[in-house]
Amino acid sequence: MRAVHDEFHGDLMEVSMGPHHPSTHGVFRMNVVLDGERIVKLKPVFGYLHRNHEKLGEGMTWLASMPFTDRLDYLCAMTNNWAYALAVERLTGLQPPERAEYIRVVLAELTRLLNHTCLAGFLLQDTGAMGTPLMYAFREREKILDLFEALSGSRMMCNYQRFGGCRVDVSPAWLAAARKVVDAYPRFLDEFEALVTGNEIVMARTQGVGRVAPELAVAAGVTGPMLRACGVDYDIRKVDGYGLYPRFHFRVPLGDHGDTYDRYMIRVLEMRESIGILKQAIDGIPDGPILDPKAKGRGLRPPAGEAYGRIEGPKGEIGFFLVSDGTPNPSRYRVRAPSFVNLTILEDMCLGHTVADAVVILGSIDIVLGEVDR
Fold this sequence. Notes:
single chain; globular; 4-stranded antiparallel β-sheet; 3-stranded antiparallel β-sheet; 9 strands; alpha+beta
């Protein structure tokens, strides 16, 4: 903390929040310049968790990078795997069988439930509702992690997708357990909303706070629930129609104000849509193989060329740009991480608000530093 002088505002105070602060959601720092309690300038500082992820990807085989994609966002290993597999499949021409595509949709929507549930719990924690909402959210998260562990052998670092399909098949018992979790989720959401959504303090702390104009969001490349909270109808599941999403009926919820409350509500509404997709996918999953017979894990050498694979991850567009020169490892490996792009407008969201609001606004962006720094 230090005193600074600005010709327009006069005497100000600069506060360095983080990198080890409970409200910064990881090793993230922001330098906040305050006029009293009002924010007049904010500078995000990244890099404390940089692991050389992309350069490492260029030095190892195509398959060896798969488990490292888990570490980008420890809440969304299944969707990170899928985006990377999709990019490699575009390079190689591999085509996952229909059953594998169904499994991918099921796992992606379970991941969306897990991510959005945790976001809601942490956001409430940031507003000052200590403990109870977060524990409610974690109770439900554990049920989905149990499913991931039963299928992949790991609760969070799943390493499950493969080029041209999936690593292991789902059993009838696993599908029955997944259906049980999905059927019970609306009751949890009803309970959670009764506790939180209409709460007077929650509305006071979030409505009108951290507004984002749709023009700014589009210009900055913001995606996911943050973009849709501004009223921009853009969901890659609808735009690209990757996987089997065109087969499933679901709506794309949109916000009206682009504030923190809309960002919370969009996630709640998206969870309700995910439940509908999951019921359709679990009921319709066909028998059959789960891997393209031409798939080759070890010794894979995609033909020379480049490809970009992207999906609608829970936080927004997660994409991988890969370049192959015909060798056993990528000559270029680049990640388009939604947490990093969405974080770039943090100052625009915080200007004019109090330092306490900055904590809530940052929580509503939903960042994981593993994919911000990479």
